[in-house]
Amino acid sequence: MRRTLGDVALVAAAVALSAVVLAGRATVSGPAAPQQWVALAVVPLPLLLRRRWPAGTLWAVIGLALAAEGVGANSPADVVAPLLGLYTVARLCRPRHLVAPLALAAVGLVGWAVSGTVPWPATIGAAAVVAATVLLGANARTRQAYLAAVEERAARLERERDREARLAVADERVRIAREMHDIVAHNLAVMVALADGASYAAESERVGTAMRQVSATGRQALDEMRRLVGLLRGGGPGERSPQPGLADLDDLVGQVRAAGVAVDLRLEGRPGDWGQGAGLTVYRIAQEALTNVIKHAGPGARADLLVRYAADAVEIEVLDDGAGRAATPPAPADRHGLAGMAERTASYRGTVDAGPRDGSGWRVHARLHFGRELAA
């Protein structure tokens, strides 16, 4: 509606301007003929459709202007309306649509100049007006295309920011799920193992019953934690607490020993300056592997934890003999732990292998690489 009103105003302005010029001629050449006033009002009318059919509108006003000239009803509208149509084509159409109108204008101007109908200076001035009209329209078209490109780029950047935000949220969900599994599952498994051991050793039936209730509650908490981890992995970042590292391996081994698993810790070599992230990765891999020993081998089992440092690499190996009594039965959700280890090692161009040992027991072996390959 706003564009339609604008086109109506443009036609009204063209008619008014032409009327003023035609009335001004009356002082020189006498009053205008009635057909001139009619032509003045009719020739600009196709401009009302200039946005829908710009090229057709230009040819329509050119045809009406030539017809008016042919019947002696020439008026200033014969110039104003074609110029407005030419501007519209230059602004809204591709340049190829200007070839024919400009060729016609050139032939007409040169013909008038050669025939002496219009002096050469006036012809040159008219050509300059035509060229300026085309340049103004082309400039408006270029600016409109530039603004559209800027808006499209802004919209694309906004979409990319939204996508990056969604990816960041998804990454944070995975991080939370992984950290929850590594921390909560380990502590709950230790609690269940301690409760199982206490229930076996309890002299009082009441104490044994209480310990069995603690063990059952711990198992239930493990199941709930697994379901929550599954939801998080399927799906805002929060404040992160201090994370453990290489210096906390002794405490980790102490917790596992307290759960009834005899663990032998061996450290070979000296760690490099790899940053906190590398230390956290080594700790989490060892924690997950030992947690699986507690859950699936149980109290009474024996395990070996080897951490071997090289200049640009580290190797983690956890072996157990499978001789204990499992604190919790294996569950499909435990694969989250293996997946978490794989994610952590992959971030350091590493590998992780987990599987049964020959005879009995389980083996987890991981390598993290920070530069050159770890020597065999």
Automatic annotation (TrEMBL):
<feature type="domain" description="DUF7134">
    <location>
        <begin position="4"/>
        <end position="143"/>
    </location>
</feature>
<keyword id="KW-0808">Transferase</keyword>
<keyword id="KW-0418">Kinase</keyword>
<dbReference type="Pfam" id="PF07730">
    <property type="entry name" value="HisKA_3"/>
</dbReference>
<dbReference type="InterPro" id="IPR003594">
    <property type="entry name" value="HATPase_dom"/>
</dbReference>
<dbReference type="GO" id="GO:0005524">
    <property type="term" value="F:ATP binding"/>
</dbReference>
<feature type="domain" description="Signal transduction histidine kinase subgroup 3 dimerisation and phosphoacceptor">
    <location>
        <begin position="172"/>
        <end position="234"/>
    </location>
</feature>
<dbReference type="GO" id="GO:0000155">
    <property type="term" value="F:phosphorelay sensor kinase activity"/>
</dbReference>
<dbReference type="GO" id="GO:0016020">
    <property type="term" value="C:membrane"/>
</dbReference>
<keyword id="KW-0902">Two-component regulatory system</keyword>
<keyword id="KW-0472">Membrane</keyword>
<dbReference type="Pfam" id="PF02518">
    <property type="entry name" value="HATPase_c"/>
</dbReference>
<dbReference type="GO" id="GO:0046983">
    <property type="term" value="F:protein dimerization activity"/>
</dbReference>
<keyword id="KW-0067">ATP-binding</keyword>
<dbReference type="Pfam" id="PF23539">
    <property type="entry name" value="DUF7134"/>
</dbReference>
<dbReference type="InterPro" id="IPR050482">
    <property type="entry name" value="Sensor_HK_TwoCompSys"/>
</dbReference>
<protein>
    <recommendedName>
        <fullName>histidine kinase</fullName>
        <ecNumber>2.7.13.3</ecNumber>
    </recommendedName>
</protein>
<keyword id="KW-0597">Phosphoprotein</keyword>
<feature type="transmembrane region" description="Helical">
    <location>
        <begin position="98"/>
        <end position="114"/>
    </location>
</feature>
<keyword id="KW-1133">Transmembrane helix</keyword>
<feature type="domain" description="Histidine kinase/HSP90-like ATPase">
    <location>
        <begin position="281"/>
        <end position="370"/>
    </location>
</feature>
<feature type="transmembrane region" description="Helical">
    <location>
        <begin position="120"/>
        <end position="138"/>
    </location>
</feature>
<keyword id="KW-0547">Nucleotide-binding</keyword>
<dbReference type="InterPro" id="IPR055558">
    <property type="entry name" value="DUF7134"/>
</dbReference>
<keyword id="KW-0812">Transmembrane</keyword>
<dbReference type="InterPro" id="IPR011712">
    <property type="entry name" value="Sig_transdc_His_kin_sub3_dim/P"/>
</dbReference>
<dbReference type="InterPro" id="IPR036890">
    <property type="entry name" value="HATPase_C_sf"/>
</dbReference>
